[in-house]
Write a structure and sequence with these properties.
Blueprint lengths: L7 E4 L5 E7 L2 E6 L23 H14 L7 H8 L7 E2 L5 E2 L3 E6 L4 E6 L6 E5 H6 L10
Antiparallel strand pairs: 1-2, 2-3, 4-5, 6-7, 7-8
């Protein structure tokens, strides 16, 4: 069995969040700290393996830290603006493969809601109430264009 090279995020409705990474076939768990957990495309506990340094990770962390000092509640729009500098405009490489930020997702673990923004397009937003989705007895296919 092959183990993932990418970190995997797990969360629950109480706001508990962890990242699970496998390094050298050993499972490592990174818990949420100070109500924030930033994840991009490299292993946090073995950053030299691949994808680091990551400008996206750095920009997201800095901008989210700025939000902490605000005296107004943080909403999804503010978080979206905080991560915007990390986004990479989708583009095709020489072989026709699409590179860049293909999607951004937000998970509100308290309200059990999932938001997907496809190709940085605010007109291509899919929002799901996961409690309702988990109750469904029939399969659903989401088509995002």
């Amino acid at each position: 069995m092959l183990l993932p090279d990418e970190p995997i995020l797990f969360c629950d409705a109480n706001g508990n969040v962890i990242i699970v990474e496998w390094i050298g076939f050993k499972k490592r768990i990174i818990p949420i700290q100070r109500n924030k957990l930033n994840i991009t495309n490299f292993l946090l506990l073995d950053p030299k393996k691949d994808g680091y340094p990551c400008n996206s990770y750095k920009a997201i962390g800095e901008n989210l830290n700025r939000l902490k000092g605000l005296e107004v509640p943080t909403d999804l729009k503010m978080i979206g603006e905080a991560i915007t500098p990390a986004a990479q405009t989708p583009r095709q490489d020489k072989s026709g493969r699409t590179l860049g930020t293909l999607y951004t997702s937000f998970i509100n673990v308290t309200d059990v809601k999932f938001t997907l923004i496809y190709k940085l397009d605010s007109l291509k937003v899919t929002e799901l109430d996961l409690n309702s989705e988990f109750k469904r007895t029939n399969a659903q296919t989401l088509i995002v264009k």
